[in-house]
Design goal:
The complex is a heterotetramer, with 2 copies of chain A (232 residues) and 2 copies of chain B (219 residues).
Chain A lengths: L8 H4 L8 E4 L9 H8 L6 E4 L10 H6 L3 E6 L6 H8 L4 E4 L2 H12 L4 E4 L13 E4 L2 E7 L3 E12 L4 E2 L8 H7 E12 L18 E4 L16
Parallel strand pairs in A: 1-2, 1-8, 2-3, 3-4, 8-10, 10-11
Antiparallel strand pairs in A: 5-7, 6-7, 8-9
Helix pairs in contact in A: 5-6
Chain B lengths: L3 H9 L7 E4 L3 H5 L10 E4 L3 E4 L22 E7 L2 H9 L5 E5 L2 E3 L4 E2 L2 E2 L3 E2 L5 H7 L2 E5 L11 E2 L14 E3 L3 E5 L5 E6 L5 H6 L5 E2 L11
Classes of the chains: A alpha/beta (232), B alpha/beta (219).
């Protein structure tokens, strides 16, 4: 069994340099790699391109990287929860590529799966289609979209083993599994790291082949954006 | 005029037994509360869940379980979890029967705008472009007019488009309307106390009014 | 919860008609829908197009359908275990479309996922590329391949619930999950059918949305093609 | 001359620590038996398993657990199961480091033929076309000549191609050869008792022989 374990987040992100392309798993603040983001904030990085469905909030997640001006460009589908983001975008300080969520997910999957391009109906007739190849199949129009990869992909799982196998929990799975496949180097932080052989092979969401480094994270805040409750 | 709850209640009547349904943020989320109990439907959350349950009680809150509006939720019996690529594979592949979402504008051709106001608001399209490009049946929940009284049911959308020729039905605070395959809105029902004339005057796009238009009834 | 249960295989295949396009899960004889194949053999069908990675063996699986001359065309990646197949093919009685295994799997996934076409490097420079669009991305050549769907998809799972959620076992998973997504009507036979709510939502391989009919099969033979053992 | 076991043993020396490896049917499958125990590698089975273990003992046979050659297998510690689309996503995406497979013919440009003999044999390409189109490192295990003595290391493949410009190294019963990036075979080692002259005479494609060619040594 190939062992992927590193000591902590600082060691995991040791070779991330400025101007890299990074992917971050998570949907909103759910399932984001909190420890890796904290470790990246400790480094003196600029000019990053960040691929993430959302851009965090003003004071948490990728929002903190935006505030520190580490990010040159965001590739996301929805950024509505972040005022600093909106400010940097409208002022032209930040480049933004907004992509339909399903197209973003599929482009990342394609990148990891060796598929350079595919066709999707999402965005036909909209500004998303500008400059893209259009084609008709069976009477319906589609856009050609390309695969996406990253220098580093940061993913957060619930459980992981020393061979890099990952299991996610609830809807914290979201973009994490595809991003794990699309990083040249994929770094996984997990709530619980177990020895290889402890996880049921039939329950694994991300096979270890995709993970180059893994560590057990700590101090998960798991901030909730919209706390909604029912009465008993 | 319908309030938000009534719009949700009226849309809930469109739901059919056995449907898989995606509910957008805002009024569409409320629809879940009014689906008749004798119908068996499954709610899809595009962040990776089939089978959204009720909001959790305080002791059941799980930060790892949210809907597409980032609200804490629970899982219904028989639910399934998956990743975002698989979720949109499901949506794009036409497996979700009904999509209910909000809109800023809808055109008489069924075009919808709901993701951007140039120079003012850029939240992003999220999953809306995938949903409207893929679903067979799309129902829009919206206000008939903007705050300054401008019709939002237009000949052409003025805002950036989310999807073209996709909206099938609209429920506003004033009326229920179909979008006709050949273009144009067809008035089906009016809100309690709202006259046909008011709806006509507040609909900029081509509006077809045939025969008697019934008034909606709520319990 | 939407209930998908039918009584048995005969009821599940009741509306399959001649000249339909059918998909069958399985790799070799591992994970094939044995009960559905038996039920189809009882029906008077001809002109079928069968999409399956393999074509069974002479006396089991899809091989039995070939022997009964129910099949007009096979779409497969490897058919090496079936002499009757080879005979019908070489004599021109059977049309065959041989497709690289990864392309077949991805075409079925694409069909179920609303992706009408994608690019793959598999088959470039070979007869598989004949008549297909070629395109270069980042200096490498790719073929355009199209999504595949079927009128009926027959899949076999280990466990399933009344809502149609499926869990596969071992390498009997193979083509079953993609095919479940690509059938206009997907019929699942399972070794154990449990009430909705009995399966962990985090362990489900195929969400119930893809399954229109489900039943508990019986008398699984699970024939082994290459019985290989180690000494103790 | 090497027998099949020796070909497998020689190929096993090419394996590096930490590699994910796909082994084809036949001699390549045997390679697993000779990978040095101090190396940590993971074997991929394209029908949906990372982490192939040894063949099962009689009491551990599970018909739901087979390799791509349809042989019963076991799972190694830390293995993972997945479907065929995910398996080839892994292969196509370049995540598998090394592919070892058999061939009927290899050309001096690194083209490989191994799936069809027109009019005679049509088994299909299985996963071979995906594997050879995607892997960075492809090693072929094959006989140097056909049964009737014809070279199988050719200028151009005569049989239908499986993939082009992909084979990096060949281990035959007579020799170990690299396929040069600019085309041509380069002789690296000869089998015990086999002369350079014999290899030259049995290689139809362009063959580069530089300096002393060492003889392979087996324990």
């Amino acid at each position: 069994m190939i062992t992927k374990t590193v000591k902590n987040a600082a060691e995991a992100v040791r070779d991330v340099v400025s101007d890299s392309v990074l992917m971050f798993g998570g949907f909103g603040l759910c399932g984001i790699p909190e420890n890796c983001i904290q470790a990246l904030l400790q480094k003196d990085l600029t000019g990053l391109t960040c691929i993430s469905n959302n851009a965090g909030v003003d004071d948490f997640g990728i929002g903190l990287m935006l505030k520190k001006r580490m990010v040159k460009k965001m590739i996301s589908s929805y950024v509505g929860e972040n005022a600093e983001f909106e400010r940097q975008l409208l002022s032209g300080e930040l480049e933004v590529d907004l992509i339909p969520q399903g197209t973003l997910a599929e482009r990342i999957r394609a990148g990891g799966a060796g598929i350079p391009a595919f066709f999707t109906p999402a965005g036909v007739g909209t500004e998303v289609a500008e400059g893209k190849e259009m084609r008709e199949f069976d009477g319906k129009m589609y856009l050609m979209e390309k695969g996406l990869r990253a220098d580093f992909a940061f993913v957060k799982a619930w459980k992981g083993d020393t061979a890099g196998n990952l299991i996610f929990k609830g809807t914290a799975r979201n973009f994490n599994p595809m991003m794990a496949t699309a990083g040249k180097i994929t770094i996984a932080e997990v709530e619980e790291l177990v020895p290889a052989g402890s996880l049921d092979p039939n329950h694994i969401h991300t096979p270890g082949i995709y993970v180059q480094r893994i560590f057990q994270g700590g101090d998960y805040e798991k901030r909730i954006e919209q706390r909604t409750v029912s009465k008993e | 005029m319908l309030d938000k709850t009534q719009i949700a209640k009226r849309i809930a009547r469109e739901v059919k037994n056995g449907q898989y349904i995606n509910l957008g943020i805002g009024i569409p989320t409320l629809v879940a509360n009014y689906i008749p109990e004798n119908l068996e439907v499954v709610l899809q959350s595009e962040n990776g869940l089939l089978g959204i349950g009720p909001f959790p009680t305080e002791d059941k809150i799980d930060p790892d379980l949210i809907n597409a509006g980032k609200q804490t939720i629970t899982m219904a019996k028989g639910s399934a979890l998956f990743n975002s690529a698989d979720s949109f594979a499901m949506i794009r592949g036409g497996h979700v029967h009904l999509t209910i979402l909000g809109a800023m504008e809808v055109s008489e051709k069924g075009d919808i705008s709901n993701w951007k106001i140039p120079g003012k608001m850029v939240k992003g399209m999220g999953g809306a472009m995938d949903l409207v490009a893929s679903a067979d049946n799309i129902i829009v929940a919206m206000q008939h007019c903007s705050k300054d009284g401008q019709s939002k049911l237009l000949k052409e959308c003025s805002l950036p488009i989310t999807g073209i020729n996709c909206v099938k039905k609209i429920v506003t605070d004033l009326a229920v309307l179909d979008v006709l395959p050949e273009g144009g809105f067809k008035l089906l029902e009016r809100a309690p106390g709202v006259s046909v004339e008011e709806i006509v005057s507040k609909t900029e796009g081509r509006l077809l009014v045939e025969g008697e238009i019934p008034e909606m009834v709520f319990d």
